[in-house]
Amino acid sequence: MAVTLKDIAAEAGVSLMTVSNVVNGKQARVSAATRERILRIVKDRGYVPSASARSLAARSSRLVGLLVPAEGEASLTIDPHTVEVVGMLERELRRLDYHLMLRGIARRKEITEALKSWNLDGAVLLGFQDAEIDRLDAGAIGGVALVAMDSYSANPLALEVRSDDFGGAELAVRHLVALGHRRIAFAGPGFSATGVVRKRYEGYRKVLAENGIEVDDALVTTVEIGHDEGLAYGRRLARERPDVTAVFTTADILAIGVIEGLAAEGRSVPGDVSVIGYDNADIAAYVTPKLTTVAQDLPGKAAEAVRLMMDRLAGKERPERATALGVRLVERGTAAPPPRRGGSGR
Amino acid sequence: MAVTLKDIAAEAGVSLMTVSNVVNGKQARVSAATRERILRIVKDRGYVPSASARSLAARSSRLVGLLVPAEGEASLTIDPHTVEVVGMLERELRRLDYHLMLRGIARRKEITEALKSWNLDGAVLLGFQDAEIDRLDAGAIGGVALVAMDSYSANPLALEVRSDDFGGAELAVRHLVALGHRRIAFAGPGFSATGVVRKRYEGYRKVLAENGIEVDDALVTTVEIGHDEGLAYGRRLARERPDVTAVFTTADILAIGVIEGLAAEGRSVPGDVSVIGYDNADIAAYVTPKLTTVAQDLPGKAAEAVRLMMDRLAGKERPERATALGVRLVERGTAAPPPRRGGSGR
DNA sequence: CTGAAAGCGCTTACAG
DNA sequence: CTGAAAGCGCTTACAG
Fold it and tell me: Is B169 exposed, middle or buried, given 0-12, 13-18 or 19+ CB atoms closer than 10 A?
C-alpha cells in the first residue's frame, strides 16, 4: 500500500541504492539528471521514507526521548514553566529533522527500556532529581546522548543544562537588601531533592553574608512547590515570624500561595512583606499585585540542550563545564521597602 | 552490542520464534517449562525488543502521534489547559503499552508525513481548526486511527472528542441571568476558527432567548484568546458599553485580561461587572477575586480519546455520534448580582 | 556515477 | 508444542 524505495526505483529504472542516495542528499554520488528525475517521482508518488526501516538499518533513529517522571498511576506533571521548554525543544529538534518521543517514567528501569526499545539517539531528562541522575549507569545508557535539565549531578554520563541558579538568587536577595530588608526568609523544596534549590540557597546566604546579615536558619523553610503549600507557609510565617519583612521563594506558584497566606492573616504585600518568586511564569503577570520574580532564559536553555546533544552525537568532546544560562530580575509589584516599625530595626 | 532475540534463542537452545512467542505472551504456543526458562534469560540479559524491528515486521508500531499546530518557526503553543490533556493522554497510552510522539505541524502535509514516516497506529490532533480537519483526505490517512480533540468537523476520517460546549455556555449564562443580569456580553475568538466557540455562542443565545432577552449583536465580540487581548477588550467595553453588567468569555486567560481591563477603567468585578471564564485552569484560583468559570472534564476527555482510538484500532464501528464530555460551573468570586442603577433596568 | 548482496531485529503464515 | 523460511523497508560497505 505505502510506496517504498523499491517502487520509486522501479519507476525510475534505477537501483534501490541510487534512490536511497538521492533521498538522503548524497549529492556526489548521483548525476544531476537522474537526481532530478528521481526527485520528481518521489514527489509525485508522495514517497516518505520509513523511519523504522531506517532506524533498523542505520545507526541512527533520529529519535530523541523526552523523559519525565510520572509517579505510579499519575499522569505527567508538566508545570507551565516546563511546558514552554518542551515546546522549544520540539521545535529545535524538528528543525534538525529529529523527532520527539514523550515518555513518563514511573520506575527507574523504564529509562533504559525506552532508550533500548526505540533505539533513541538521545534523550532529555526533565524534572528528575539529582540523585536519580547520579544512579544512571553506563551499561544501560550505551551511546545515547543524555541531557539532564536543571541538574547538578556529577554523573559524567549526562550532559547538564541549567540556569545560573546561584546568580538568580543573588539578584533577588540583593534587590531585597537594597530595598532595606534585613529579615529575609527563604522558602523552597528540600535541598537534597535538587541542586537547583541548593544553589539558590547558597546565593541567598552569600548576599546576606556580604551585607553583614546573620543567617537565621529558622528563616529557611522547606516548602514543597505548590499553591496550597505556599499558602500554608504564608499563614504560618505571618503568625510566627512577624519580624520577617521579605520572602524569597524558589517558584512563582509558591510565591503566589505565600502572598495569599500572608493576606489571609492580614498582612499585605508589598506593604508589610515583600515576596519574590522564581521563573517568571505567565501567571506572575496576572496576579494582583503583579509578582516580582527571577526570569530564566528558557529559549536559551532549550537551544543549549539541543546543541549539547548534537555535539555529542557528532562525537565532540564533552565541554569542560556546564554552561549556566542567564537570569534576570523582573521587577513588578511585590517588592518594596520594609514598613517602618516601632524602631526595632534589628 | 544490544542483546537480540537471536541471543536469547541461542542461550535457551530454542528457535527465534519460540522466544518471540514467549516475549509476546502467546501462551498457548509454548510449554510452561521452556517459557519459564526463556523469561529468566530475557530478564538476566536485560533484553528489550526493538520497537523499530517490530514496527517494520508487524502491522502495528504501537506508536501514537500527538500532533499540534506550530506556526512557522514558532514553537508549539500548548496552553496550560491543553498540557494537562497531554499528560493524561500519555499516561493512558503508556498503560496500554503505546508510545507517544510529539510533533509540531507547520505545514499541512506534515501530518501525512508524520503518519507515514513512523507508521503511526493512531494520532491525536490537538488544537487544529475545524477547517483543517475537514481538509484531511482519505488517501493520505490510510488506516490510521485519528482523533480530533475539540473538533466539530464533519470529516468521517476523524473521531471527535469534545466537551459539551453548548451546555457549558448554558450553565454560565443561566447563572448570570439568575443573578439578575440582562445585558450580557460574549467574548471569544472568531466562530469560523472553531466549532467549539460557535457552540458556546449558541448556548449563550439559547439562554438569552429562553429568558426573553433580545440578542444584541453589538455585544458579541471577536477577541483572540490571550491576556492582552482580553485587557484591551475590557477597556473598550468599560468605555463604550457602560450598560453591560456581565461578560461571558470562552477562556480563563481572556476573562482575567477582561477583568484587568475593566479595572483599568475604574470598573470593579464583580461589583460593577460580572465575568465568567472557561476551562477552570489553575490560574483561575490564583487571581483576585478568584474566577468563576466553566470546568471541563479533562481526564474524561483524555480517556475517551484513547478509548475511541483503541476501539477503532480493534476494528470496531465508529460510534453513531460523538460523545460530549460533561461540564460544570465552578462558582467563585467574579459573578454577582448587577449593581443597582438609576432604574434603567432594560 | 551506479548496482548486487548482505543484514538490521523482528513477525507472519505455514509445516510438522 | 516447536521450527525453517520469507519478508518488512531501508543502509552499509564493497565492487565495478
Answer: buried
In angstroms, the separation between the Cα of residue A5 and the nearest Cα of chain B is 13
**Is residue A292 domain-shared with residue A311, that is, in the same domain?**
no
Residue B283 and residue B176 share a domain: yes
In chain A, what residues touch B76 (CB-CB under 8 Å)? 86-87, 90-91
Position B313, amino acid? L
For residue B145, which of B299, B320, B310, B304 has the smallest C-alpha distance?
B310
pLDDT tens profile A59-93 = 899 999 999 999 877 788 788 788 889 999 999 99
Using the structure block, give the residue that is written with the C-alpha cell 482580553. B230
* Residue B175 and residue B96 share a domain: no
Distance CA B339, CA B329 (A): 22
How many domains does the structure of chain B reveal?
3
Q: Are residues B156 and B289 in the same domain?
A: no
Say yes or no: A197 and A283 in one domain: yes
Reported as a single tens digit per residue, the pLDDT across B30-49 is: 788 888 899 999 999 999 99
Does strand D come within 7 Å of the CB of A50? yes
Q: How sure is the predictor about B94, in pLDDT bands with cuts at 50, 70 and 90?
A: very high
The answer to whether residues A314 and A245 belong to one domain is no
Q: Is A191 left (phi over 0), alpha (psi -120 to 50) or beta?
A: alpha
**Best mutation site among B5, B56, B298 for testing chain A: the one with the most A CBs within 10 Å?**
B56
Identify whether B226 is part of a domain.
yes
CATH number at residue A131: 3.40.50.2300
Residue B130 near residue B152, CB atoms below 8 Å: yes
CATH of the domain at A14: 1.10.260.40
pTM > 0.85: yes or no: yes
**Does residue A153 sit in the same domain as residue A71?**
yes
In a domain, A55, yes or no: no
E strands, B23-94, are 63-69
Q: Which domain holds residue B16?
A: 5-49
Residue A128: pLDDT above 70?
Answer: yes
Among A32-41, A150-159, A268-277, A329-338, name the one with the lowest average pLDDT.
Answer: A32-41
pLDDT 10s digits, A187-223: 999 988 779 999 999 999 999 999 999 999 999 999 9
Residue A57 counted as domain residue: no
pLDDT reading at A247 higher than 50: yes
**For range B89-118, the mean pLDDT:** 95
Count CA atoms within 13 Å of residue A88 on its CB side: 17
B103 shares a domain with B227: no
Q: Does B116 touch chain A (CB under 8 A)?
A: yes
